[in-house]
Amino acid sequence: MERRLGSLLLVGAGLHLSLSLTSLPQLLVDRNELTTPLTSFTRLKEGHYLLKSLSLNPYNSGSFHHPPLILLLYDLGARSHVVWVAAETLTAYLIARIADGRSRGGGRRLLEGEEAGVWTPLRCAALYLLHPFTLLTVQARSTNTFANLALALTFAAGLDGSIVLALFSLSIATHLSMYPFLLLPPLIVLLYRTLYPEAVSAAPSLVENPIEKVEPVPHSPTSSITAAPSFLQFSIGAVTIFASHQLTLLGLSFWLTGGWEFLGSVYGVILTIPDLTPTIGLAWYFFIEMFDHFRMFFVGVFQLQVAIYSLPFTIFYRHDPLFAILMLVGVISLCKSYPLLSDFGLWHALLATYSELGLYTSHPLFLTCLSLYGLTLLPTFHYLWLYSGSGNANFFYASTLVWAISQGGILLEFMSAYGKREVGRGLGSEGRKLLKEGSWVLVQR
Q1: In Å, how far are 186, 236, 349, 385 from 317, measured between CA atoms?
Q2: pTM of the model
Q3: How far is CA 430 from the centre of its chain?
C-alpha cells in the first residue's frame, strides 16, 4: 500500500505542478470561491510590500488580515506553487494515515455487509489530492492550504496518541484561522481514549453508547490503569499545553510585527466581520442588510451559532470522538465568517474515512445533484452580478444559499446515517437481517 500511495502522491503532485504552468493561476488568484480577504495571495503580497519595501506596519492598512506567521513564511521564500503542492501532498498523505488509523486502532468495527462500502486509505488520499477544490486552491495559492495541513496533522497525531504534536498542530491551525480551537474538546477525548484505553473502559461516562453497552476491561491492581490520570487531570494538562503554545505563537507574532495590531486585523476581523467582500458564505449579505444599531448583537449570534455545537457533539459522540471532530469541521466550514471551497474539500476527504456510512444514507443522489447545482450557480451568478451587470447581489446570495443547503444536508445525512448504523448494531445480526429484508423499517433514531 505504501508503494501505491507514494505513486499516487507523485502523480497528484505532478498534476498540480503542470496546472501551475498554465494560465489558471492568473485566472483563479482572486476568485471569491477560492480566496477570501483572510487568505488571498494578492493581499499577502501587498502586506509584504508594505512591510519590507515601505517599512510600514501592514496591519494598519485596514486591508491586510493574514497572521504574522504567514507573512514570515512568505518572507522566507514560500511564494512558489511548489510550496502549496508540497503542503497539499502532505495533507493527502495524512488523510491516508487517518483512514488507516481508524482501521488499526479499532475505531472502525464493521458490521456484516459493510466491507464493500469501505474506502481504502489510498482512495481517501486520492479524493483529497485530486479533488477539484484542492486542484483549484493550489492554483489560487490560498493560504488556507496551510490551515488544512495543520488540521490533518492534528487528526493523524490524535489517532496515533501523540498528544504534544496533536495539540501543537491544533494551536497552529487556530493561529491561522481561529475556529479550530472549537475542536479542542473532542480532540482531548480522542487523545485520552487512545492513550489510556483501560482507563476509558473503566469509566462508563467516557465510553457509554446509548445503543450498545461496553463492558469494562478487567484489570489487576498493578495494571497501567492505576497510573493513568483522571480525565479531568488529563484535560487540564492538555488545555495547558494548548494555551502555552498559543501564547508562544502570539508572542512570536508580537516580536515579528512590533505590536499587537495584528490581533484586531486578523482575529477581530474574523469575529466582527467588517470586510463584507462577497464569499461563498452566509455572513456578507446578511450584514450588508443589517442596521448598524443591531449589528453587534447579530454578530454575536452568528458566531455563537458556530461555537455552540462543540460541547454537545463531544458529549453525544464521546464513544467516537473522531466522528464528533468531523461533524464540527463540517459546521465550521459551513458557518465560519469567510468560508472557502478548500474547507469543504478537506471535509469531503475526511468524510470518506467513514465511507461505510454511505450504505445508510437516504438521499445521496439528491444531495450530490444539489451540490453540483450550487457549484454551477456560484460562478454564473457572480459573473451576472459583477461583470455583465444583468443581475444583482440577490442572485449571488441565492447561489450561496443553495450551496449551504446542500452541504448542510450532507452534514445531517451523515449524522442520520451514523445513528441508523448504531441502532442496527444494537439490534444484533437477526435484527439487521430483518432490516435488510424490509421486514423491519427504521423510521427514526
Answers
A1: 9, 21, 20, 43
A2: 0.91
A3: 38
